[in-house]
């Protein structure tokens, strides 16, 4: 019997492919494509908040991957949950959207539409220039990010 989508964990890779380290979530999803994880859905998203809420609605477990700017050294791995407080909101200010990841989390909280388990994983970015590739520290952090995804999903 097929598993309802809500029971399947979801990994969302957030980013813009042509904006330097902002492509982190998409690069991480590309690495995950090589992993044989049955029962885990994966989707790329540009980071607009209402779209994120629609993606995770009715999901029990969601892991969101994105580049962040939390004032840490480039390449630092960061882990947040909806209860992480003000640092989380500041860390997601690299988005090109006025209503992005942090706003989606807070809006979903108010509306009662947060997943039972939401983990936001990211890497401190260094370069956000149009047309730039991932910076070396962010690219080097990808294997550790993938390990954190596995831990968050208990795989």
Automatic annotation (TrEMBL):
Gene Ontology MF, one: enzyme activator activity
Q: Does the keyword Hydrolase apply?
A: yes
Lineage, top-rank taxon, reads Bacteria
Segments spanning the bilayer are: none
Going by the UniProt record, its keywords in alphabetical order are: Aspartyl protease, Hydrolase, Protease
Q: Which GO terms describe its biological process?
A: protein processing
What is stated as this protein's family in its record?
Belongs to the peptidase A31 family.
* UniProt-listed PANTHER family: HYDROGENASE 1 MATURATION PROTEASE, HYDROGENASE 2 MATURATION PROTEASE
For this entry, the protein name equals Hydrogenase maturation protease
Query: Which species does this protein come from?
Result: Roseospira navarrensis
């Amino acid at each position: 019997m097929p598993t309802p989508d809500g029971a399947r964990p979801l990994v969302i890779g957030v980013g813009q492919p042509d904006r330097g380290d902002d492509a982190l979530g998409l690069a991480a999803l590309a690495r995950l494509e090589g992993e044989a994880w049955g029962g885990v859905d994966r989707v790329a998203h540009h980071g607009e908040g209402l779209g994120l809420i629609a993606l995770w609605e009715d999901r029990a477990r969601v892991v969101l991957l994105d580049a962040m700017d939390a004032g840490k050294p480039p390449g630092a791995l960061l882990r947040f949950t909806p209860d992480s407080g003000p640092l989380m909101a500041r860390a997601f200010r690299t988005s090109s959207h006025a209503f992005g990841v942090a706003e989606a989390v807070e809006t979903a909280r108010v509306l009662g539409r947060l997943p039972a388990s939401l983990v936001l994983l990211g890497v401190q970015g260094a370069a956000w220039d149009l047309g730039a590739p991932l910076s070396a520290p962010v690219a080097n952090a990808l294997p550790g990010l993938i390990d954190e995804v596995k831990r968050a999903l208990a795989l």
